[in-house]
Amino acid sequence: MADSKQFENIEAKREYLLMETMKWSHALTANAYGILRDWALAEDAFQETLIEVSRKASEFEEGRAVLPWVRQIIKFKSLNIYRKHSREQTGTEERLIDLVDSTLGNYLQETPLSTLNQKKAALEACLSRLDKRMRDLLLSFYADGDRCEVLAQRMQKTVNAIYVILNRLRVKLRQCITSYMRGVVQ
Questions:
Q1: What is the pLDDT of residues 101-154, one digit of tens each?
Q2: H helices present in the chain, as ranges
Q3: Total Cβ atoms within 10 A of residue 42
Q4: Which of 153, 155, 148, 149 is nearest to 133 (CA)?
């Protein structure tokens, strides 16, 4: 979907592009995470993307869709960060990065922002319903990137027990989110 907005000046154009980019901040950061596998680096990529959007506002062609343009910017920023932090680069990793980018791109094009926001609200609501220890376990695994071995030691459980707990939590969250999206959650 192309944006047919006309701008009075470059500052108005820059402000519009930054606001549109901020609307998609969670999805764009997730896109970067898909490449970088590190939330801190993904957030850095998003910040660098905002700077680049501001810098290249004059190059943005009016009538063009904003999201695909910004997705290209964050992809290149993420790849630059990845290369800077990676010692070895293989063709397999490049193909994987392209596949993640393509898949997420298709998802973002087909999923309205309101649906993404509803899913985020559902995830937040369902996470809040979990026991604090289980929520902390999920956040340690997904947000902090802690390995199962570290979590097992911290929780004084076997690694296999952590795998089982994480799997059960994912199933529970999936069911809760599905119910929430259908309006069934009490």
A1: 666 666 666 556 667 778 788 888 888 888 899 988 888 887 777 888 999 999
A2: 10-23, 25-36, 39-55, 66-85, 91-110, 113-129, 132-142, 148-155, 159-182
A3: 22
A4: 155
Rounded Cα distance, 160 and 152, in Å: 8
Tokens coding 156: 């004084």
Q: Left if phi > 0, otherwise alpha if psi is -120 to 50, otherwise beta: which for 6?
A: beta
Does this model's pTM top 0.85? My answer is no
Residue pair 78/36 in contact by the 8 Å Cβ criterion: yes
Sign of CA dihedral 105, 107, 113, 118: negative
